[in-house]
């Protein structure tokens, strides 16, 4: 890659020493930043699905630097998330994202007993969202009872982990049932993926695709493509099931063909030409997926795709100054709804950028497995 990944990782850690101290002093869980300040999640308080990325980022930086400040901040913010297990009613299928990167990371890296219990608690919540008609229910609103979404492929790792932790095969069985359903119902002939598919909650009959955070019904929301790419790669790493690897590779080919010349990622691969809507979070997630696919298959094209994305983000969209607290700019949560951020610095963009660099630099603790 053109940029030096070790040097970039060092600069990132340096900046987060300052901005982690700010978060700790304010006693908050950061979501995004602007005007030199942290901003908390736009919806559902600390139950918002992104809460795990901050402690996950702190654990990544701890593994990179062994700096005690990052470990302490990971533990401080984990406690804010485990409080949400008692609130419960806002939690949804994204307990995978939230607790794999907080209590799950803590348990993996320190063996802490309470963190082990909290991770299993979250895994049970996720398994309880599986409907016997064939899918894990994504969200809580009554009119979305039949929705399953591609993002859930990332959450399945919590179930695979829970079976390894307990030797209880039910968790893995549910993860496989959901992954098989996703392979059947979400993947289009050109290798792109739907964001949302709705089922009849009583019978499991497929109703059809629903428009989500992308440009339009039937379009290709880039972050959804990235969740599919990395999520099926993780399903393969968890099971060694070649069908999941094949699916990950199909999505990867589609994604690679849509990376912009400058290495940035459009928010939707079907957005109108000339409409400048970038989502670097999709690029950072995909870079992680490409790097794991490269490790699993040895294919040089996946390493090249990851490096193109990383160089693009580092050349054009990394801000080491004081106007934002994090690093990665041009992160867009949703194509049409700016409520959660458009062209902002958002914590999960930083998380996946740091994870991708850690994979290259050999410090990634692989918190998803
Ligand atoms: N998992 C929700 C999102 O990617 O916005």
Nutshell version of this structure?
The chain is built from 14 helices and 8 strands.
Task: Give keywords.
globular; 369 residues; binds glycine; 3-stranded antiparallel sheet; Glycosyltransferase
Describe this entry's structure for a reader.
It is a single chain. This protein has helices spanning 5-26, 53-65, 68-82, 84-87, 95-100, 103-110, 113-127, 152-166, 170-185, 222-239, 242-257, 280-297, 300-316, 347-361; strands at residues 32-34, 37-39, 130-131, 135-136, 147-149, 196-199, 206-210, 345-346. With 369 residues, it is mainly alpha-helical. It has a domain at 93-98 and 111-340 and 355-361: Glycosyltransferase, CATH 1.50.10. The model has no long low-confidence stretch (mean pLDDT 98). Bound molecules: glycine. Glycine binds next to loops.
The secondary-structure element order is HEEHHHHHHEEEHHEEHHHHEH
Bound molecules: glycine
Number of strands: 8
Radius of gyration: 19 Å
Give the terminus-to-terminus CA distance. Answer: 26 Å
In terms of DSSP E residues, the strand content is 5-15%
Strand and helix map with partners:
Blueprint: H1 5-26, E1 32-34, E2 37-39, H2 53-65, H3 68-82, H4 84-87, H5 95-100, H6 103-110, H7 113-127, E3 130-131, E4 135-136, E5 147-149, H8 152-166, H9 170-185, E6 196-199, E7 206-210, H10 222-239, H11 242-257, H12 280-297, H13 300-316, E8 345-346, H14 347-361
Antiparallel strand pairs: 1-2, 1-8, 3-4, 5-6, 6-7
Bound molecules: glycine (GLY).
The site of glycine has 5 residues, from loops.
